[in-house]
């Protein structure tokens, strides 16, 4: 698992309930008579579940979280104060500053850049929310970093949330030439999380550009010397201090585990209630989107 | 899955959306709906980093506080603080920080003359037991004590000198510290 980007488990792609064609989001008022010639709501029994029902259920499961702004309640996992205590606001010296990081910098204290934690909090909330949704939909998440100090921590984080990590030398065509390097039937990651955007010679990691080429969204911690352009959900923050990286690893681990747990809960809920209970199920689950991790 | 490998053209989302609309890409990727519902604050479009030329400078301000003026005066007069900074303790107060707080206290009481305030704060800190050593005087003291350190008794331990909490005057206190510090240095050379 450690050297390779993807694993034989993924060779059985297509098992997951992904929508086979682009479907518009269903309205929030179920209970109408559906086309298909089944019995009306109220008379249908939960035991009878044809392919249309399971498709409807899976659509409901997938579309329900998108209606809430913070379905997984990621806001409660951190605060500006906790980011400050973990030294996330400390950037590099003013000479190392990247031009595109200037909007995210609060100021410079005696030559050292200080990152604006208000912006970091907003970006972090979006990024964690996106990660949670991807994990909820059973997407493959890959943690990438080339900083040797934290490679063990990142690998254990990935193992603890059941996802993948690649903290070793990134071979040239790993994403762009995957069928040749990894085998014929290989699934690429659905999300790449960069804990360090730069490699060991302070150049942008190859995977940033390759993920943009292969239409893979990325979440990344960008320090004051990094280029945040190609990263879909950048998180301006310190990527050199141990407390900062420990905090981010903990946040990602908690979010992903929470999202997977939520998915199991939702599936159990809808399976129990069956097609006629979908209306009540939506209201019931909407009332309590948060849960104790 | 059809892809366009043009990372410099638009964002990942715009390219995927256009491929779907053109009918080239048949199935929507996993993250498409999520991105639609929760887009990032800035669309991740490629930009070429260009250098700044001439007198154009970044619009980042320096972070300065009014207490920095007091700190500058403290460090020019007394050099770096005698007490080492303990960064493990989040509520740690260094000598400089204590000086600044005392200075502001005295300023609030009504004093306006800066020189006077400086001297008053120094005295107040000495009364509280904090040792302050001026930079200029320390240099002359060192030259004077070099001549006499051999005749000092070697049994004098540095800890006994520092444990004394008597409100001594500045000059003899400096001499004691100088000699006690010179001895450990003096024992090592042949």
UniProtKB/TrEMBL annotation, chain A:
InterPro entries: Ribosomal_uS2, Ribosomal_uS2_bac/mit/plastid, Ribosomal_uS2_CS, Ribosomal_uS2_flav_dom_sf
Predominant subcellular localization, coarse grouping: mitochondrion
NAD found in the keyword field: no
A GO BP entry: translation
UniProt xrefs under SUPFAM superfamilies: Ribosomal protein S2
Protein family per UniProt: Belongs to the universal ribosomal protein uS2 family.
Task of the protein: Required for mitoribosome formation and stability, and mitochondrial translation.
Protein name, entry field: Small ribosomal subunit protein uS2m
From TrEMBL, chain B:
CDD domains cross-referenced by the UniProt entry: At1g26750 (cd23701)
The UniProt record lists the keyword Ribosomal protein: yes
Keywords: Mitochondrion, Ribonucleoprotein, Ribosomal protein
Domain Small ribosomal subunit protein mS23 conserved, chain residue ranges per copy: 2-128
Protein location: Mitochondrion
GO molecular function (one): structural constituent of ribosome
Keyword Mitochondrion: yes
One term under GO cellular component: mitochondrion
Entry's Gene Ontology BP terms: translation
Disordered: annotated segments: 142-190
Top-rank taxon: Eukaryota
A Pfam family annotated for this UniProt entry: MRP-S23
Annotated Basic and acidic residues bias: 173-184
Family label: Belongs to the mitochondrion-specific ribosomal protein mS23 family.
Descriptive protein name: Small ribosomal subunit protein mS23
Provenance organism: Callorhinus ursinus (Northern fur seal)
Gene name linked to the record: MRPS23
């Amino acid at each position: 698992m450690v050297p390779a980007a993807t694993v034989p488990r993924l060779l059985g792609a297509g098992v997951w309930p992904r929508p086979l064609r682009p479907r518009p989001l269903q309205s929030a008022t179920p209970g109408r008579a559906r086309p298909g010639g089944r019995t009306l709501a109220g008379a249908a029994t939960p035991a009878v579940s044809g392919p249309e029902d399971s498709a409807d259920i899976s659509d409901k499961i997938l579309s329900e979280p998108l209606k809430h702004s913070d379905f997984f309640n990621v806001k409660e996992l951190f605060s500006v104060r906790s980011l400050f205590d973990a030294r996330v606001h400390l950037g590099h010296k003013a000479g190392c500053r990247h031009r595109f990081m200037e909007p995210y910098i609060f100021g410079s204290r005696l030559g050292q850049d200080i990152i604006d934690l208000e912006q970091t909090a907003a970006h972090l909330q979006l990024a964690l929310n996106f990660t949670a949704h991807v994990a909820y939909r059973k997407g493959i998440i890959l943690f990438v970093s080339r900083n040797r100090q934290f490679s063990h921590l990142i690998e254990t984080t990935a193992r603890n949330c059941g996802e993948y990590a690649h903290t070793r030398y990134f071979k040239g065509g790993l994403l762009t030439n995957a069928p040749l390097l990894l085998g014929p039937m290989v699934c690429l990651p659905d999300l790449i999380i960069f804990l360090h955007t730069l490699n060991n010679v302070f150049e942008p990691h190859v995977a940033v550009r390759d993920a943009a080429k292969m239409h893979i969204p990325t979440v990344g911690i960008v320090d004051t010397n990094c280029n945040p352009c190609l990263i879909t959900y950048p998180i301006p923050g310190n990527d050199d201090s141990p407390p900062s990286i420990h905090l981010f690893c903990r946040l990602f681990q908690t979010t992903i585990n929470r999202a997977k747990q939520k998915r199991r809960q939702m599936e159990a809920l809808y399976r129990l209630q069956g097609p006629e209970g979908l209306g009540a199920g939506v209201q019931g689950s909407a009332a309590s989107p948060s849960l104790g991790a | 899955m059809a892809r366009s490998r043009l990372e410099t053209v638009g964002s990942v989302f715009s390219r995927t959306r256009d491929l779907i609309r053109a009918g080239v890409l048949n199935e929507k990727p996993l993250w498409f709906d999520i991105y639609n519902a929760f887009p990032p604050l800035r669309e991740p479009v490629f930009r070429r980093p260009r250098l700044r030329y001439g007198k154009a400078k970044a619009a980042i301000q320096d972070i300065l506080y009014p207490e920095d003026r007091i700190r500058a005066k403290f460090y020019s007069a007394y050099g770096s603080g005698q007490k080492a900074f303990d960064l493990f303790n989040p509520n740690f107060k260094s000598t400089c920080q204590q000086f600044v707080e005392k200075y502001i206290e005295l300023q609030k009481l009504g004093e306006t003359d800066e020189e006077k305030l400086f001297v008053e704060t120094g005295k107040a800190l000495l009364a509280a037991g904090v040792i302050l050593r001026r930079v200029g005087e320390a240099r002359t003291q060192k030259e004077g004590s070099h001549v006499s350190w051999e005749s000092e008794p070697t049994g004098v331990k540095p800890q006994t000198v520092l444990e004394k909490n008597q409100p001594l005057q500045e000059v003899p206190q400096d001499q004691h510290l100088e000699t006690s510090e010179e001895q450990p240095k003096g024992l090592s050379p042949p």
